Prior knowledge:
Blueprint: H1 3-8, E1 11-15, E2 19-25, E3 36-42, H2 44-54, E4 58-66, H3 69-81, E5 84-91, E6 99-102, E7 111-114, H4 125-129, E8 138-142, H5 151-164, E9 169-172, H6 183-195, E10 199-203, H7 204-211, H8 217-226, E11 230-234, E12 240-244, E13 247-251, H9 264-277, H10 282-297, H11 309-318
Parallel strand pairs: 1-4, 1-8, 2-6, 4-5, 8-9, 9-10, 10-11
Antiparallel strand pairs: 2-3, 6-7, 11-12, 12-13
Amino acid sequence: xxxxxxxxxxxxxxxxxxxxxxxxxxxxxxxxxxxxxxxxxxxxxxxxxxxxxxxxxxxxxxxxxxxxxxxxxxxxxxxxxxxxxxxxxxxxxxxxxxxxxxxxxxxxxxxxxxxxxxxxxxxxxxxxxxxxxxxxxxxxxxxxxxxxxxxxxxxxxxxxxxxxxxxxxxxxxxxxxxxxxxxxxxxxxxxxxxxxxxxxxxxxxxxxxxxxxxxxxxxxxxxxxxxxxxxxxxxxxxxxxxxxxxxxxxxxxxxxxxxxxxxxxxxxxxxxxxxxxxxxxxxxxxxxxxxxxxxxxxxxxxxxxxxxxxxxxxxxxxxxxxxxx
Length: 325
């Protein structure tokens, strides 16, 4: 099936990590001055899955979590958001779930990531082989899944199985330097992954990274789209340029008073997928994805901050509208 046909099924297989987030309360507090912290579901893939479910879609996650209380917290959180976790495997030993600790503020924002001995990197080819790919409309993954073995090989194997089953593949570049052994490896692997996908979403820095130079990022995005892919080139406050079927769509953002920057990309992806699945035009779906990102950065946490369908509708009705692209 083609990209839009697969998305229209509104039933996504998402390959990637689930983790725990810690953020201080009250809003505006830095981690170093925090006395009270809240815990929430984290991890780019799990966040995207939760966001899709909150917007009325279906999502199943493929990953591994630590066989301990933190791993079970993540499993319980996936249940809370309605994410199908039948393909989430618990792994023992000294492996641990990823942990993100971040400020509840924008100015001077810091995020501390704990990824040593990460449980999600233990996802194997057996894990992805156990999935019935024909049950889903599209596969989504993010770049962190490729940062180490055996997860990297498993993710590429999932691509092969998805392609064989006729599923389009959607890729959020999501480059996180701390997860990789070096930039050269990351650039090579992420570029190979992008070349196998039907849709690629990334920011200007990530496309520039894959191109070998920041000023060549837009050229890289155009080149990937020239082969028939849908490519979303995000530029932060300047909005996004989307390339598809010979067209260039420019869209703005919904300005809000941000509480923190985290979760925006995951929420954008969730909103874009859910909106396309509901039948919105590509232009409108991109704007709705931007609206989801705006809602998310204005509230505490990532997964808990992502909007439901009624919340998204209320935001769009009450907001004066996006910036000019």
